[in-house]
Amino acid sequence: MYLIVEAESIAPDVRRIVVEAPKIATKHMAGQFVIVRVTPDGERIPLTIAEADPDTGSITLFVQAIGRTTTLMSELEAGDFLVDVAGPLGRASEIKQYGTAVVVGGGLGTAIAYPIARALADAGNRVIAIIGGRSREYVLLEDHLAAHGIEVIPCTDDGSYGRPGFVTEALAEVITTEDVGVVFATGPVPMMGAVAEVTRPDGIETIASLNPIMVDGTGMCGGCRVEVGGETKFACVDGPEFDAHQVDFGLLQRRNTSYRAFETKRLQDLESLDAAHHEQVLAPVRGACATEADA
Amino acid sequence: MTKISRRALMKLDRVEMPARDPLERAASFEEVNTGLTPEQATVEAMRCLQCKTPTCIEGCPVNIQIDQFIDRVANGDIRGAADVIRMDSLLPAICGRVCPQESQCEGTCVLDKKHKPIAVGHLERYVADTVRRYGLEPPVEPVPSSGKSVAIVGSGPAGLACAADLAKSGHKVTIFEALHQPGGVLIYGIPEFRLPKDIVAAEIDGLKALGVEVETNAIIGRTTTVEELLTDEGYDAVFVGVGAGLPRFLNVDGENLIGVYSANEFLTRVNLMGAYREDTETPVLDLIGRRVVVFGGGNTAMDSARTPLRLGAEEVRVAYRRTEAEMPARVEEIHHAKEEGIIFDFLVSPVELLGNDEGWLTGVRLQRMELGEPDDSGRRRPVPIEGDIFDVPADVVIVAIGNSPNPLLPATESRLEQTRWGTLAVDETTGRTTMPGVFAGGDIVTGGATVILAMGAGRIAAASIEQYLESRIWDETLQPASV
């Protein structure tokens, strides 16, 4: 069991969770992820490591309540536990001198872009973060990014904040006015695909962090197969970052729908529970109960 | 006991393992084989000729004193039989169920020529299950600590066997497992209906009783490196038994359609993650009324075929590119699969996997083959029959054609030399790798093989580790271990 030391809401349905995982905190490099199980019978889900603090032995995860598992995880508070946290997994981002680097984050994708942006800035790059959301409250981590000297261009689909429109429109502007060495795209699959099309004509190096369905995260199952340049790759061990101009985003989008019916049903099952039964699902990982069980 | 003439005994038929009715069991994850009755076990044991030079022992990868344990069964001394087995094998309840006996102990039984061989596997299982059921296992004796510690990487059969031997010698043993539950392929790979998970859990609990610690979610190479185990964490030696966990695919078009699984993924979802349960959190594609095609001919292919039936599949076909005679699966698994209604298509090879516009699998395109000249393995090589290509409808394909070594650990430790197949280079007689203090065994060394071979390799390494801990000598003079 892994102790949650901090938990807070940072946007509607988005939680920041800091969990004790000393070994992972020491080893983490930008771009890597962990596999998490929330409850004793829970599924294994991959989550990007947004921050790691080797001194306190903790890592920071951002989670958006979309399905059953992420909804349950979002209900956890400091003092509660995650059943399993395994990692760090995946290859680290290729951090080097690119000159000007742009990270493009859509929705929760900004939480994936955040560690990459920081690492790029720490390596001496000028970093521009184009971060988007449906409306103002869905634009994540603007202050976090700015605090690291990163130039932030917030965008909202509804124009309620920052630059109105999609992140790709902002990106198209930036690459005409700046000499951009690299673009990192993190977020929904269609967004990453669109970013790749924006940068393709100029041949700007573009890297996408892919988010396929995973089980073990160590190369054992091959469920996370993606196609890059016509070749099959395992996102968990060969990625998760790949040359966005080579990625078959359509395939990724389709494969990510494999279990949609099941996912909808299991979320409905959870939502149909009354408060007491709902809480029972989380009882084994609640601080008080878990401590009792240990004692 | 009444003396019965040898001639009379030899006339008896080989015992048949009682099994659940094929139709009933094909809808259930309960174990198929129900185990011998005491009467069956006694009679079967009495059939044994008690050869002066037992050839069965030569056929056993860990050289269990088979004649001796069977003699004890014949005399009703089940506890004594268990003691004999335990000298050489630590996981009899598992090996009795999953060993390919027909090509090992039973294949070398002298009765195999004229009669049917002694059912060594069934008897081994009977002994292990009986002592567990009646609590006849000897109590765990506390062993004085040696003051030495060993890290075992991977909790599959190789790691468990290695851990058991070392713990019995008083070494502090910690097993590191990447997944959230220990047992390796015994947990994620082999289905409940062939190897109940409580049996695996009991074996692991037995190790814990010996003082072995198990750390899950520990991905060696990532969470901690092999080097760090030896330095920062202070282990005196490391055993690497991480298995061959990188699935091979068919290398044909359509392989990434929705509905195409590796056997590892499919079985992991069902076995480790419990996707067969009603209240599962981990999905597997709905198989009710669906058609499934499994590629491969080994035990994993049989498991991958029999599991979908239990999840409601309408039709399951095994497509194998050679003939039944060349199938590497245990005879019993093939037999059980047929009984349950699995259809076998021999001498076919996949050309393409077919899908619809939404990216879902709809069928497989197969090439008919015929047997040609023998290849390197001595088996006749299948060659395509020109122009004989046909389509079979399928909603799900499971690819069970084997695994390559998982590169995750070797890739993070340059001193661990690999062979050109990606397996770890070791001295076979000792399990010594190219990195001082590090030993290896099981599928990461041999490529995909069997539980018993992995267990044997774990024990060879354990014996070498003992010597190394004693002498601290790391060169060719490290004596070949005799286990």
The shape of chain B, in one word, is: globular
Quaternary structure state of the chains depicted = heterodimer
Low-confidence stretches of chain A: 291-295
- Which class best fits the helix and strand makeup of chain B? alpha/beta
Describe the overall structure.
The complex is a heterodimer of chains A (295) and B (483). With 295 residues, chain A is an alpha/beta fold. Helix content of chain A is 32%, strand content 30%. Chain A contains eleven helices and 17 strands. Chain A has a seven-stranded mixed beta sheet, sandwiched between helices. A five-stranded antiparallel beta sheet of chain A has the order 5-6-2-1-7. Chain A is globular and about 55 Å long. Chain B has 483 residues and is an alpha/beta fold. In chain B, 33% of the residues lie in helices and 17% in strands. Chain B is built from 18 helices and 15 strands. The longest helix of chain B is centred in the C-terminal third of the chain and has 21 residues, at 451-471.
What's this entry about, in short?
The complex is a heterodimer of chains A (295) and B (483). Chain A is an alpha/beta fold.
Keyword list:
heterodimer, A: 295 residues, alpha/beta, seven-stranded mixed beta sheet, five-stranded antiparallel beta sheet, 11 helices, 17 strands, B: 483 residues, five-stranded parallel beta sheet, 18 helices, 33% helix
Helix and strand layout, with pairings?
The complex is a heterodimer of chains A (295) and B (483).
Chain A: E1 2-11, E2 14-20, H1 22-27, E3 33-37, E4 45-48, E5 51-53, E6 58-64, H2 68-74, E7 81-82, E8 84-89, E9 100-106, H3 109-122, E10 126-133, H4 142-147, E11 151-156, E12 163-164, H5 167-177, E13 180-186, H6 189-199, E14 206-209, E15 225-228, E16 231-234, H7 235-238, E17 241-243, H8 249-255, H9 260-271, H10 275-282, H11 287-294
Chain B: H1 6-11, H2 22-25, H3 38-46, H4 55-59, H5 66-74, H6 78-86, H7 92-98, H8 111-114, H9 120-133, E1 149-153, H10 157-168, E2 172-176, H11 185-188, H12 197-209, E3 213-215, H13 226-230, E4 237-240, E5 246-247, E6 260-262, H14 263-272, E7 291-295, H15 299-310, E8 315-320, H16 331-340, E9 343-346, E10 348-355, E11 361-374, E12 380-393, E13 396-399, E14 403-404, E15 438-440, H17 443-446, H18 451-471
Parallel strand pairs in B: 1-2, 1-4, 2-3, 4-15, 6-13, 7-8, 7-13, 8-9
Antiparallel strand pairs in B: 5-14, 10-11, 11-12
Helix pairs in contact in B: 3-5, 5-6, 5-9, 6-9, 7-9, 10-18, 14-15, 15-16
